[in-house]
Write a structure and sequence with these properties.
The chain is built from six helices and twelve strands. The protein has helices at 10-17, 35-44, 93-109, 173-176, 184-203, 207-216; strands at residues 25-29, 51-55, 77-83, 116-118, 122-125, 128-140, 143-153, 222-229, 238-246, 252-255, 261-264, 269-272. A seven-stranded mixed beta sheet has the order 1-2-3-7-6-5-4, with helices on both faces. The chain is globular.
């Protein structure tokens, strides 16, 4: 085994999160299929809001639009957080943006201040993907009963740890930090604590404040060229547009060639084009 591949220190992670007003339960897995699936099962068993599931390895990690997430043991950080909203959920994408912002700020706290957010859920550094978020909801009687926010970070990977299909598209915190190993337990605690603060902000109606901070870390959300395809508009339609920020629900606003502004939701496919 690669000498840098290590297990998570569950006891230390519990200590780091022990004083959190947001965290109610922490589950650490050496290996699992998906932390989102684990959080969902715990929710069915009555787990409280603020339950956190962290894994050293995922066998079936997944991302937005059904994509898989490369989750090798001992190198990345894979975690999911169960949230039971206190007020009706007006727009699920808000939770995705909150998680992306929490992840970006956690990376910044570790010295990776040049990490940026690409709407709605990805973190990039110098054009290469560093982390991503998947938000899943369960509704009952028209109201959202649970929100599960799953996030995967590439942490201590070197370039050769990525499969060939990702070697020119992915990066890690260690690569960004010129080979310096990153403390995964500290990253987890930084992310969860920041997510808890942003959840509280959304719950008390501070969406505009969150968007302002999110936008500061998402330069491509305004004025970038994108290609849009998928369920928005006519089935199979594909067109190029310019990004114009996000709307009140967290959807991406784009300007079409005819000058009309439309909102793109996270079930559409958005490809970022060269300037």
């Amino acid at each position: 085994m690669n000498a840098k591949v290590q297990g998570l220190d569950g006891n230390r992670l519990h200590r780091l999160l022990s004083d959190s007003s947001f965290v109610r339960r922490v589950e650490v897995r050496e290996s699992t299929g998906s932390t989102n699936d684990d959080a969902r099962r715990l929710s069915r068993e009555g787990a409280p809001s603020g339950t956190v599931v962290v894994a050293n390895h995922q066998r079936s990690g997944r991302g937005r639009l059904g994509r898989s997430w490369h989750s090798p043991p001992g190198l990345g950080l894979y975690l999911s957080v169960l949230i039971r909203p206190l007020r009706p959920v007006e727009a699920p994408t808000r939770w995705t943006l909150a998680s992306a912002l929490a992840a970006c700020e956690a990376c910044g706290a570790l010295g990776c201040e040049s990490v940026v957010i690409e709407w709605p859920n990805d973190l990039y550094h110098d054009g290469r993907k560093l982390a991503g978020t998947l938000t899943e909801l369960r509704s009952l009687g028209g109201s959202v009963e649970e929100v599960i926010v799953g996030t995967g970070f590439n942490v201590n990977h070197s370039a050769e740890d990525f499969p060939a299909v990702l070697e020119n598209r992915a990066t890690s915190l260690a690569i960004v930090l010129d080979g310096r190993p990153v403390d995964r337990e500290r990253l987890a605690s930084l992310y969860v604590e920041r997510l808890g603060a942003l959840v509280a902000l959304v719950e008390r109606g501070g969406w505009d404040d969150l968007v302002a901070e999110w936008s500061r870390h998402a330069p491509s959300a305004v004025g970038a060229r994108v290609a849009v395809s998928g369920p928005h508009g006519h089935e199979g339609e594909r067109y190029e547009a310019l990004t114009r920020g996000v709307d009140a629900g967290g959807a991406l606003r784009v300007e079409r060639p005819d000058g009309t502004i439309v909102s793109i939701h996270s079930n559409a496919s958005v490809t970022w084009l060269e300037a």
